[in-house]
């Protein structure tokens, strides 16, 4: 993967996280907690964690490459 692809993937993960969180807040406000808000909250958390881990790895590799 190129650097641009990795950064795009990180950005995509965070965008998906915020979109899913928006849906969770909207659905919970309308209907309360159900299966879909729980599923969306789980997926948003998963995307956030994956994006953060990938960003951490990217910055560690970039830091070591610049030494």
Automatic annotation (TrEMBL):
Keyword annotations of the record: Membrane, Transmembrane, Transmembrane helix
Give the source species: Marinilactibacillus piezotolerans
TM segments?
Answer: 6-25
Q: What is this protein called?
A: DUF4305 domain-containing protein
Give a Pfam family name: DUF4305
Q: Does the keyword Membrane apply?
A: yes
């Amino acid at each position: 993967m190129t650097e641009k692809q990795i950064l795009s993937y990180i950005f995509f993960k965070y965008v998906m996280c915020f979109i899913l969180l928006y849906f969770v807040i909207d659905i919970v406000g309308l209907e309360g907690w159900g299966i879909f808000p729980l599923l969306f909250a789980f997926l948003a958390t998963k995307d956030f964690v994956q994006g953060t881990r990938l960003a951490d790895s990217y910055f560690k590799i970039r830091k070591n490459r610049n030494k």
